[in-house]
Specification:
mainly beta; Lipocalin; 13-stranded antiparallel beta sheet; 13 strands; 12% helix; 68% strand; elongated
Length: 317
Amino acid sequence: MTYRNLILFILLAVSSIFTGLSAQGKVEGSTLRLKGGFFYGTMKTDIEKRNTFADFFGAQVNEDYRNARGLDLINNLGAEYFHSLGGGLLSNVFFGLHLNSFGRDYQWKSYYPVGVGLKEGQGRLGYEDISAGVTLAVAPSFRILPKYVIRKMDQRFDGTYLGLGSPSFFGTQGITTTAISGLLGVGFEYDFNPDVTFFADFLIYGPFLYRSKGSYENELITLSTGGSSYAYANGAYTFSSQKVTLGATYQIIPKLRLFASLDQERIQTKGESVSAFVLGTSGLNELATVGQYLALSNEERIKLSGFKFGVTYDIGM
């Protein structure tokens, strides 16, 4: 049994003993909870690894992308509706929608036998989570919140490349990805006192029940003194996610809370049914074509880690 499957088994067992991520503060009755915040931290995209791998087949060695750390103002923006089921173990069911957006302006250098490349790229990652779950009030101050999440994830990367040396080159690149995946999650909440709640939130397994084929498209045009080229790759695109969130909320006034958390997420991505080619002035470049094909076929990770801050406001229904 793998580590991931072991965690899933334990969590399901705990849920079954008590008769099932998100609330982060006890709700009273049926409630609509509005939520929004910002994220400060690091975003490392899988596109960086794919580009670095493909460039190696073109005799270029890339540095790590710089400027991976930044501030994102649209994070955990959305709402959750909690429908009360009474005061028993199964206290409510909930449904939610949250939007998240991350953007970075990367810069890096590449090195080739007789020259250096000055490169920059704008990376944008966004995902929308639609969730449904239940709240298990296993103790007066402790709750378990299992949930199922449908996530739609999109990326856009636009690169501009300048090579100084022999040969010299200028290139532009555009990459888009999109995919949908079902994910299992669970949250834990503990009320330290009437105003302070500690919480832990996890995405633990996926894809589960649903996984779209998705799509990945990469287009790279290079004008060079040594011969220009056009590279293209596309294919299906899939992902899964494991996420850990640890944090606390503080009630400022009734119904209004501040929250702060430490977030770490690893999104595994992979291209499938890949097709690729690189055409140069002298015809098909077989070696570069292999590089593009393998770069998309590889399993790579998107890494998000940092701090999240925001507010929630409850509206009684």
